[in-house]
Amino acid sequence: MSFISGFSFILFAIFAILFAREKRRISLSFLFIAALGNIVMDLVVFSSQIPWVNLVVAAGVLAFFPLSILFISIYLLLNGKIMLKRESKKLANMLSLIVSLAIFTMVGLFIYFFIISFNSRYAIYYIGSLLIFMYFSFVFVSFLAYATFYHFWKIRYQPDFIIVLGSGLIGGDQVPPLLGSRLDTGIEQYMKYNQEPKIIVSGGQGPDELLSEAAAMKKYIVEKGIPDEDVLAEDKSRNTMQNMQFSKSIMDSIKPDHKSIFVTNNYHVFRASIYARLAGLKKCEGVGAKTARYYLPSAFIREYIGILTMYKWWHIAVVGLIVLLVSIIP
């Protein structure tokens, strides 16, 4: 007897169909995590039919959530301390620390309102805050799980172009390690596809830069031995959306019916793929360059905030609904 229910099969079938049609949608992340979660529930139900196993599974499920919260909180706290030591003290580099403190705050408030000093009115406010916190946690887990899945999905076509996304220069004209990893991965992809695709280096010039990112990136790649005529520069873009739009214009002018891939850092692949879809790039999947492990938590949180911003009205509507429901509780 199979432990996977018919509903789980339906969820995965819908996911597979939509994934095959268009992978670059945030809605797939929620369907993906819902299908996985439903299989976990199927496993729990199935285990209840086996003596002793049901007790082990039940104990595991009960222990999983508090231990997960404790582990994540401590991990993010320690990661935040590492980020402060190794990176500049910018808000973007303090995100893991901030999230850790937010989790500890929610746990502390729970203990205070429900164990130390119970107050029904404050408890209702806390429940509302907890529901909002849980909603955004669900969105983050869905995003993280699907972004990881998407990153490792193999590209199954021969690209005509390889777009390497810029990420800022240091000293006004030097390629930093983060951007260097993207360019090195772009070169690897160029060699993988038998040196046939054209490489498009995409990035404009910031106010504190002596030249455009594209110019510095092209210089870096050409010095690595790639023929100058195989490297095209897109030097007007200021953000990821413009990277995709302006690179598309270059590709359209050379080969209207083109296929492409883009290269960015691994944490940025999924969100950049959404921009590629919105820019009208029909066949454009992402390849992720490696990033230092200590940098990943804050980087993924920053990407998550970017996703929230892209679809802010949906999230505002959900938060408004939660506030409305809590406000009518007597």
Defining traits:
11 helices, alpha/beta, single chain, globular, 330 residues, five-stranded parallel beta sheet, 5 strands
Walk me through what this model shows.
There is one protein chain. The protein has 330 residues and is of the alpha/beta class. Helix content is 63%, strand content 8%. The protein is built from 11 helices and 5 strands, in the order H-H-H-H-H-E-H-E-H-E-H-E-H-E-H-H. Strands 3-2-1-4-5 form a 5-stranded parallel sheet, sandwiched between helices. Strand 4 (260-265), helix 9 (269-278) and strand 5 (284-289) form a beta-alpha-beta unit. The longest helix is centred in the N-terminal third of the chain and has 34 residues, at 53-86.
First and last CA, distance: 47 Å
By DSSP (H or I, 4+ residues per run), the number of helices equals 11
Overall shape: it is: globular
Q: Low-confidence runs (pLDDT<50, min 5 residues)? A: none
Order of helices and strands: HHHHHEHEHEHEHEHH
Helical coverage, percent range? 55-70%
Outline the biggest β-sheet: 5 strands, parallel
Radius of gyration using CA atoms only: 23 Å
Beta-strand proportion: 5-15%
Average pLDDT: 91
Given helix and strand content, the structural type is alpha/beta
Q: What's the total count of β strands?
A: 5
Strand order of the largest sheet: 3-2-1-4-5
